[in-house]
Amino acid sequence: MVLARSACADCARPLTPPDLAPIASFLLLCGPVPWMRRLYPTLPDAITMPLLLAGLASTAWLDPAASTSHAAAAAWGDILVRAVAFRYPTLRQREGLGQGDAKLVAAGDAWVGLAGLPWVVLAGSAITLAGAPMAALSGTGDDPIRRRLLARA
Q1: Neighbours of 69 (CB within 10 A)
Q2: pTM of the prediction?
Q3: Exposure string (b/e) for 54-64, b if CB count within 10 Å is 16 or more?
Q4: pLDDT tens profile 27-83
Q5: How far apart are CA 36 and CA 44, in angstroms?
Q6: Residue pLDDT, tens place only, 80-103
Q7: Whether 59 contacts 113, CB under 8 Å
Q8: How many angstroms separate the CA atoms of 128 and 133, rounded?
């Protein structure tokens, strides 16, 4: 099972390296982003915009018919995160999401399309939750969380 080649679910044709380019690129970028967040608390456009453009360009190259869907997913991801970011301060009395977060979700959605939009949000949430205790204990997390974790340790 591990050594079997990936294949198209519809026609069983083995996938070629160009077919796997979006998956490989997405996986390569998933690892560094949480570490970059530790170094740069705000996500600069120099990181998020090339990722978004690469996702749209990859889709246009590999599946031109899906380009509109992937662009729509990027727009919807951006809008949804910005809507949450707009309401968050009224609920928690502090800023919780920034424009970089919206751009990063949009970039992920540019790679996976509308069907993958919920999975990008789920994966981002899971990665954030998994990294929160490490960030809090290392002094890079939110102060109230850090204080609670240190009090329990």
Answers
A1: 17
A2: 0.63
A3: bbbebbeeeee
A4: 555 555 555 556 666 777 887 899 899 999 999 998 999 999 999 999 999 999 899
A5: 10
A6: 989 988 988 888 787 777 788 889
A7: yes
A8: 9
